[in-house]
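#lab-general

N.A. 3:47 PM
ok so I finally got the sequence cleaned up, no stray characters, all 285 residues accounted for. can someone with queue access submit it? mine expired

B.Y. 3:52 PM
send it over

N.A. 3:53 PM
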Amino acid sequence: MAENITKAQRSDLSTLMEQASKRSSTIPYEGYSREDGNIPGNILVVVSEDTVYSFANSDVMERERLGEDRLRVWVRAGATAFRMNRVRTGEPPDPFTVAMENIAPPASPRRAGDPGPAGAAAATEQMEHLAPPPSDNLPGAPRYAGPDIAQAEGLMVLPALSTVGSHWTGRCVGGDTFANNCAHFLSDAFIRAGYTELANANPYINARCYTPARRPIRAREMWAWFQHRAVRTSYTPTPHTGWWAVFQLDESVYWGGHVLLLDTDTWTYYGTGYHGSWRQYLYQW
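B.Y. 4:20 PM
back already:
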C-alpha cells in the first residue's frame, strides 16, 4: 500500500513539474476560439474585436476551456503565427513571432521630473504610429534635445554614448517594426554609431529583426550587453551625471522590460518611451 502511495505521489509531482516547465516557455492568449477554416491545422483566437490570432495546433502547448466558445491557450514562445488586425485596404496581415517584441508594452506615463523624448522622431511612447503627448512646458520641466546633438570627436575604441544619441532616428534601417520596438530601434542607433559588435555574432544577442539589417530586438538581451560593457552602474537616474544606457523593468507589468538612452545633462531620453516608476538599471562606459 505504501509503495502504491509513493508511486502516486511521484506521478503527481512529475505532472506538476511538467506543467510548470510548459508554462515557463509559453505565452497565454485568451479569447473566443474555433478552428481556422483558411489554414488547416490552425486555431483562431479572437482576443478582441480588433485582433485575431491564428496559431498552429502543434504550437499550442496547453488549453483551458473558459466557456462554450471561449478558450485560454498557452502558445510556445518563438512559434510562428499570424495576427490579423483592422487595416486599410491593401495592407495584408503580417506573419509574426510570438515573443516579447510582438507584445506591445504598456504606455509610459509622464510623471513630474521625468526626462522628455529627445527629438520628434523619438517621441512615440508605445507604438510607432502613436503620437506623443505635447510638452507641458512647465518651469523646470525637461526639454526636447535639439536636432544637432554633438558628435563624439576623435577616434575612439568605443564610441561615446552621446554619439549613439546623435544616430537615434526612432526606426530601423531595415524598415520593419514590431509591437515593441525599444531594443529594435535603440540597437539600430548603436550599430550606426559604430558598435558593430551588435551587428555581428554576439553571445548576448539571440533574437534579431527579419530584414537584412538584422538588428537586435529584445530588451533583456540588450540589458545583458549593457552589463557586459559597463564600467559604472547606478539604480537612480540623477541629473548632470552624463549619458547612460538604461534598462527599466517591472515584471508585474511587462516581463520584457524596456531599454533607452538617457542624457542626464539635458534631462532627455532617446527611446520609444520612459517608465519612471519601474526599477531602473543604468550603465556607463
